[in-house]
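Recap quiz, item 2
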Amino acid sequence: MPNPSLPAYLQAIKKVFIDPELPSDNPIVQRVKKNLPTATLLKGQDPKNLSSSEPVLLLKKFKGKFLRFCPGTRFYNCCGYKIIHFGENCPLDCSYCILQAYFQDKILKIWGNIEDLFLELDKTLKANPKMRYRTGTGEFTDSLVLEPLTGYAHKLLAFLQDYPNIKIELKSKVVDLSWAKNLKRIDHVLPAWSLNSPKIVDTEEKLSASLEERLKAAQTCVQWGTKVALHFDPLIYYPGWEKGYQRIVEMIFDYLQAKDIAYLSLGSFRGMPDLFQKIAQNHPQSKYIYEEYVPGLDGKLRLFLPLRLKLFSFLIKALKKGGLDRQIYYCMESNMVWEKTLGYTPARLGGLDKHLENLAFA
Amino acid sequence: MKEPKSLKILSPEEIIIDNPWIFWKEQGEKKFLQNLKKMGQLEPVLVIWQKENYFLVHGYKRVLALKKLGKKVLALEIEKTSPKTLGLIYFLLNAEKRSEYHLVKALRFFSAADSTLAKEEWALLGLNPKSPFWDHLHFWLTLPEYWDDLLLQGHLEISQVPWLSQFSTEELEFFYPFWQRIKWTKSNLRTLLTLSLELKAKGLLGAQLKQELTLFLEKKLSPQDLQTSLLQHLRKLRYPTLTLAQEKLARYLTEISKGSGWKIQHPYHLETPGLILQTQVNNAEELNQAIQELKDIQKQNPWRKWEDFLHA
């Protein structure tokens, strides 16, 4: 019997491939085995030979650098966030997800050698004790979507609770607060949720938690004494977008106050042309890709600037009305966009990375 | 291949040549006729004897030419066999004809009743039933036979099937005259297909648009003008805000450089206010003049109306 407490997209995992270089007493392997008792465990086999697109999980010994810079480009302002790279891909299957064009396959991967991650983090954090690290795990996968299987976030946060110079953002579209269990402190954690208009959540996300659930979870974290981060990325232009985005902004302030939000990002939907082709192929019902997208300076297709400015100005007006101000920032936008919609550029804030670091560690 | 039975000398009228397995019927050109006249028939044609008649298997062009020259035909009779095998023999003996048009014609024959080929037989034809090209060819076979002429004329290619297959039969019939009338450049054709499919996805490929596009056909435009004006029209519908802003900006940039040798361009879709100013000078005097013209452009401040372009 599959584990009924797991969400359906995790129960659907019938095969787990285990890297033979991971010892059998590896804590992630043990935990996955326990939580997926009916899955077939395949040690040493290559999941790339799978002919079907059935959901499988690969527990791998990762040999690269775990802590790395977010892959921003020089043409637009990047937030300088550092990624804790612990896995790749996501089972939520959101239509707009950049990962479908970013990675060659759809195999869910988790780096099982968590002790190597801890060694690297310990070395880096102790070598630079005066440097503050604003990090997160939600770049190449959802920070919490595999948490019921692996307990990875909980292990990571438990390990990092004795390091004062790191903040870990858990960016997610699901609700799982088990990471907080038995921690001595949680002020090194910045729980974060991606939000979107209710219509986009209904039609383009499908497997994610409802907006109400996400905001309620954010409210719980605030009650525990931590701030939260919110992300509107990707903002999607579609007929009726004003109504949808107005509604989600109202919902935010039904659950949270501006002071509870460390920062909130805005990023319009963008991607290399390949992503648009993948969306047309994998999600033929998704029509937003046929709005007016043009090549940006980095080669990615972006919503034509006048439309983007409309979208951003609308959101900023609504968010400011709710009390947010300097917490609002753009993910990968030009100084021109900052200036025209917010009235200043990241330079006025002392640089975007520094500004966000101050907000995260406040 | 079936065993040969015997060589015959036949009159062209004795041979039935319009057989379904001869799917690439071609008239011999003048040179072919001259060569045959000069050298004589060096190779026999292939025939079968069936129902008291000789049926041609291979050598269509030669039989027609010999008939024209009033000569007898040297024919090798082979054992009679199924139409499918005769088609395979014909295909293999004419293997130099491998255009997409020829393949489609052959497949139309083999796809007909009781001509289904086995995997090994498809391999003989150089086709892999698991390849995307195979799927594309089979989509083409769903189109009416007169569409094959578009392949023959090079107006469409099998490689365009992934786009064509996204249109309904009715939509394809609508576009047929646009492809029949002129040969589109590859890039324009790709743009036409992409824009039309994207407009279809947006629900805009309806009766009104079809009516508008038909008007372009009725205008008797040159092939180049037809392509340009039709694509402009589709682009305006697909990207209304962008095309409007670009037209406005292009008019403005032309106006501020009017009378000068400078060309001002903005290829960045407003993502930056960057402008490219270009001119050509051949000597010091022209350079001085270009500098003066540039100063005049500077006085007008090309960015003074930039805000207008940013607000859709």
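The interface with chain B takes residues 287, 290, 292, 294-297, 302, 304-307, 309-310, 334, 336, 340 of chain A (CB under 8 Å).
Residues 8-361 of chain A form a domain with the pyruvate-formate lyase- activating enzyme fold (CATH 3.80.30.30).
End of item.
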